[in-house]
Design brief:
This protein is an all-alpha fold. It is built from nine helices and no strands. The chain has two domains: about 80 residues, Rna Polymerase Sigma Factor, Chain: A (Orthogonal Bundle); about 80 residues, Arc Repressor Mutant, subunit A (Orthogonal Bundle), CATH 1.10.10.10.
């Protein structure tokens, strides 16, 4: 059985909100997602749960994916995160402690770490990426970010927290 290929045109139509293209994208991506989940998750039940969650996330966030070239990496990182989340929930994968994560990151060569951080930013959904870049790169305050985005302080803080958690997970896997 060969992997289904998603065309750039199908992806772009789905990204722009075409309902039929979104349905076709979900149908085309499902076998690849399921195959990857079965290889990544610890149990077949977790693989099915991760597949369904990844499809749901894809449906909700396809419009935030910036390019067709980033699509596969984004989608498989969603599946990987879901498998890890399910394993942690079942107590099968311990959470990495802050000190352990910091030591792991600091042991990498600086050039590799820079590339990994850039890739972690790129892997974030746009609404998280924007907040993280404004806060951690441009060093804007929470209030400044809220004004720039037209969002509440609570929304900015929640997005920043989630962005940092996703980046930490990306960098420590």
């Amino acid at each position: 059985m060969s992997a289904a290929v998603i065309s750039p045109d199908l992806f772009e139509a789905a990204r722009l909100g075409d309902a039929q293209a979104i349905a076709s994208l979900l149908e085309t991506a499902q076998p690849n997602i399921r195959r990857y989940a079965r290889a990544t998750c610890r149990s077949s039940a977790d693989a099915e749960d991760a597949t369904q969650e990844a499809l749901w996330i894809l449906f909700r966030h396809v419009g935030t994916i910036r390019s067709w070239l980033a699509f596969s990496a984004w989608l498989f990182s969603v599946v990987r995160r879901e498998c890890l989340r399910l394993a942690r929930k079942a107590g099968l994968a311990p959470a990495i402690e802050d000190a352990e994560a910091e030591a792991l990151l600091l042991s990498r060569p600086e050039a590799d770490l820079r590339l990994d951080v850039a890739a972690a930013f790129e892997a974030l959904p746009s609404h998280y990426r924007d907040v993280a870049l404004m806060r951690d790169v441009k060093e804007m305050t929470i209030d400044e970010i809220a004004v720039a985005l037209g969002a509440t302080r609570q929304t900015v803080k929640a997005r920043l927290h989630r962005a940092r958690a996703l980046m930490r997970e990306y960098l420590t896997r």
